[in-house]
Specification:
Layout (H helix, E strand, L loop, with lengths): L2 H8 L3 E4 L8 E7 L3 H8 E3 L13 E6 L5 E9 L2 E7 L2 H7 L1
Antiparallel strand pairs: 1-2, 2-6, 3-4, 4-5, 5-6
Length: 98
């Protein structure tokens, strides 16, 4: 791998479903990369009204996805460029996040 290719790889942001596909009580989606916070903040609204980027790493935040009346879920910052989204299990809820 060349240095420029490695730099391109590190600049990507990934959205990955961590739980197996199918019906379940809870599904976990990881958003990882330099744009992770910006990507999640486009759709996530914390009940507290606080922006996710102002939330300490490791803190769990309850809110909704897709506006005030959207899917209720839990989000946690796992690092500067890593956000974990926990939503209802099942295809529809996960697809709305992904």
């Amino acid at each position: 791998m060349t240095t420029s290719h490695a730099a391109e790889q590190s600049a990507l942001t990934y959205v990955v479903e961590l739980t197996p596909v199918g019906r379940a009580a809870v599904a976990v989606v990881l958003v990882d990369g330099p744009a992770a916070l910006a990507v999640v903040e486009k759709s996530f609204t914390a009940l507290s009204g606080r922006r996710l980027r102002h939330t300490p790493i490791g803190r769990i935040v309850v809110g909704s996805w897709g506006g005030q009346r959207g899917e209720e879920l839990v989000v946690a910052r796992r690092g500067e460029c890593r956000v974990e989204v926990q939503c209802h299990g099942g295809l529809a809820a996960v697809r709305s996040v992904v």
